[in-house]
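Interim report, section 4.2 (structural modelling).
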Amino acid sequence: MRRHISSVVAFVVFAVLAWGVTAEWTEPGGLVSEARASLDRAGARNPVTAVLLSYRGYDTLLEVGVLLLAIASVWSLRRVPSTEPHGAERPLLGALLELILPLVVVAGGYLLWIGSDLPGGAFQGGALIAGGLVLARLRGAYEPRDGVWLRLGLVAGLLVFVGVAAGTLAAGGRLLEYPEGRASSLILLIEGAAVVSIALTLGAMYLGGRPDRGSDEP
Amino acid sequence: MLALLDVLLALSLVVLAWGAMADPDLFRAVVKLITLGMVMALVWVRLQATDVALAEAAVGSGLTGALLLSSLRRMRGREAERDGARKGQGG
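Predicted structure of the assembly:
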């Protein structure tokens, strides 16, 4: 009974939204033309990347912080003791991984690089590599260990982003106001660190809890 | 021609969403949710939001699906433990 009520409510909400979109409550306009005109100075030809990392870079900084909060919350749920790799039960997965994992890494790096001109970017590349990490975990080839390197990778995105933001402040401009001509390289730097963080965060989240420490735990 | 594709995609969304919610077999429901994510990615492409489509396919379909399947497996394991304990106590 409850399920039927909720589905009716969901359908009503959907109908209202559909009517709103077709009746054009939302008017195109605002700053679209100005945003598109300044893409070269923003440092990216892909308007989505320009908005994410240049015009609204502060929001993306907070988003990367939210990802760190998310993995901290997942880690606070429980400890996940390391299990014996049971990859021997899945020979096909191993064969697939040998082919796919290098391609996944290359594709993720490609998405990161091409994100400034074409659809792509840090989140997409990071999520793709995280998918590869999940597959490797299923095979037993990737066991996240709570150690210096994992934690460094998890915070790298936020650290670099905050560092760039502090740098722009120190250089006399406003927060995340990239200096002339350096916008695209700074965007690439931020996105590069973000890819590592996003991939490790999403990959570690699959574990469902905090992994064991490295070799220093008895 | 593309209008036909759009209609098919929209219909698939509704059918898959309903199926994911209404299916009593949880595994089938999760599979329908994963498929919903992939169809949603195609919808994003048709709406010319390719960046969103990439993210939806990777996170909404791939990672969420993997997480749900993993949770389902642990749920089944807990249920089996509980049933086993109850049988042991009753017997």
